[in-house]
Amino acid sequence: MSIDLRHFTTHDAGTIRTMLLDVHDDCYADQQLEPFHERERFGWFVDNWSAHPDFACVVAYDGGEPVGFAYGAPAAEGQEWWRKSLDPAPDHSQTFALSELMVRPRWRKTGASELLHTELVEQRPEAMAVLLVDSTHPKVQRLYESWHYKKVGEHQPFPDSPTYAVMLRDLHTPVTS
């Protein structure tokens, strides 16, 4: 397996949108009847995130085939919703919100998710990274913990969404394994 990582911005949103939706459909094939995981609903999220002027997306390809992707954008300063999960909240004022990290089933357990994550967040200028993990998926939460995220609370952003573990990571403190 030879993974090629490619970077995309808000200017590329129109060219990658269908591919992102197709990868989503493959990843959630067994949950497509659940309204929160429908293709149309995910399209709304893609459109919302990719419209952000500082949207960042990394797509992994194996040959010409998309393996998976990771994307997000900086949270608007002063609007880091995760801060209410901590008392006291850190002084850091800038947060990168990692919205999605998906790897198609065929490439799971190959290290592709860590490659995507590292490529997306390791060089970010923001002080913190935040993400949500479905609280019914403890293996995924443990994976993020192995990447130095800590659970700081729980959040249900939409009435029909799962309850998520709020995971936070300091991006500027050197990590030791």
UniProtKB/TrEMBL annotation:
Signal peptide: none
Domain N-acetyltransferase: 3-172
InterPro entries: Acyl_CoA_acyltransferase (IPR016181), GNAT_dom (IPR000182)
CDD domains: NAT_SF
PROSITE patterns assigned to the protein according to its UniProt record, in alphabetical order: GNAT
Protein name: N-acetyltransferase domain-containing protein
